[in-house]
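Quick one before lunch.
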Amino acid sequence: MTPAGGARLFANAWVVTMDDAGAEHLSGWVHVEDGLVVATGSGAEPAVAERVDLHGAVVTPGLVNTHHHLYQTLTRARAQQADLFTWLRELYPVWSRIDAEAEYAAARTGLAELALSGCSTVFDHHYVFPRGRQGLIEAEVQAARELGVRIVASRGSMDLGVSAGGLPPDDLVEDIDAVLAETERLAAALHEPGAGARVQLAVAPCSPFSVTGRLMEESAALARRLGLPLHTHLAETLEEENYCVELYGCRPVEYLERLGWLADDVWCAHCVHLSDDDIARFASSGTGVAHCPTSNLRLGAGVAPVRAMLDAGVRVGLGVDGSASNERGDLFLEVKQALLVARGRGGGAAMTARDAIRLATRGGASVLRRDDIGSLEPGKCADLAVWRTDGLELGGADDPVAGIVFAGPHRVDRLVVGGVDVVREGALANADEREIAQAHRAQARRFSL
Ligand SMILES: [Zn+2]
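Model of the zinc ion complex:
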């Protein structure tokens, strides 16, 4: 493994920096040292100890995933025709079998898939904590450390069971005080503040139909006291909207506002059913969005109004969402999918290929409140993805940057995180992909019907 301190020049590439000006360097190079980007450019190369020739590949910043449920790799292809609520009701009892051993296998699989799709930073929303099961968050953090990707884990929660009008079964909801105490313990044990963090923690009560207003408010107070970001699901389906109107007397965004959750330390997954007024509230409050187009299509939830959000100035990133509602944990597929659904909704000019890459890089970093990742600029983390351009699917593409999006997804050729190789020549650098798949199948059998 190349140490983070090793100086390397990634040369002979089309470098997409994703800086504010959208600078790209043809015949370009990226100079990295001490885990950081020193400079990017084209033409005359600086003298650096190790020169890596990329043979005309495209280099982008490492992608940033803003919504996931890694444990769901254990339960793919279930409830195949179901809408969200039906799907959840079928899966909650299956998910209640989760333990640290299964979570570790699931996280290794999900994180390996994401790394091989060019993703260097992963947010995971874990909210299923069966009574007595310990070490679930620690298991996924261990998997991320072993593979070499950055993780923003979260202590999710559910406290509104079916007997109190919620969706999850009563035996899967928790006590508020236990949730808050466990969140504080995990924050002290795992969260790294500041630039270059490899492990962070967010506070993430699950959704309006599985969490009480009191837990939402107390979670926000705790997160703000500890300086942690806040996350939840919102406005995913029309059924959720009807549920909120019935139970809380208002639509989801208004409900969130009442709870003090429209703020710049919050991002919400999905946001499919936002009105123009809702979008304006997100923009003025700085609330971010994790756009998960494949999952939304898979569950028939709809298509989020991302063009309108971007025009209003809302921070938007991309997410694969859990592998039970998007069986492919490939973030580059979401780049292409975001472009396609935006055009399906708003016409051919609704999103460019570079806009779509920007969502998955700068957009994701902004949503996670990280200014140290998401672009290739001096002083930022040396997180970069290398995409080959010499395969069958890119022949004839004069613009290889648009070409990789339109022809995606692709297995990344190389992924570098903090200056260290995580993927090399299309294979995991720190783990055996076949062994991960085999260990995962052994655990997944425990979740069979
Ligand atoms: Zn989700």
